[in-house]
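## tool: complex_structure
## caller: assistant
## args:
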Amino acid sequence: GNSVTQMEGPVTLSEEAFLTINCTYTATGYPSLFWYVQYPGEGLQLLLKATKADDKGSNKGFEATYRKETTSFHLEKGSVQVSDSAVYFCARAAYSGAGSYQLTFGKGTKLSVIP
Amino acid sequence: ETGVTQSPTHLIKTRGQQVTLRCSSQSGHNTVSWYQQALGQGPQFIFQYYREEENGRGNFPPRFSGLQFPNYSSELNVNALELDDSALYLCASSSDGKINGEQYFGPGTRLTVT
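## result:
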């Protein structure tokens, strides 16, 4: 089936620390992969994406590389800020037919950054 | 360009009642997907509508139903509400023909069933 596993949280870091949130997916085909972020009380925002193996998605200092050999898409940021405190979701696309897709999400990892 | 909007923002219902949630898709998008996000969990796919027809369904019972209108807006209906239906309901829109599965989410409707 189509599933996504991401590291359990919560994760608490000091400002300017290095962040890694692990994500692995089941390898049925070559799905597009995504990281979404959810700030308190809000919906999901697309953070970055990668559509094929070895692609690197990046946005706002966050990066993730599509690793086919390890079926992983780990999220990294070199220096986190307090404003990065949120819940992060890894997701993979699954084809639904007629050119459309559904997303399968991990359970989310809550990040808290303290000054 | 208008983003995805949802109404209402919050809703409180009693067990056994029925509820209708609404979603307006982003301009130019003809596909709407609905997700249920229980507290502390990732969103779970309910179903998707494409050109007014259901196009894919997750593991949800038939009392979850939907509609899509000619302007591509959509409704999610839930009958015979149960306590476990309490969740954030997210709508996402996308455009067919895109091969990268990118979807844009609305802010959600928080449903509480008492």
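## assistant note: The mean pLDDT of chain A is 91. The first strand of chain A starts at residue 4 and ends at 6. Handing back to user.
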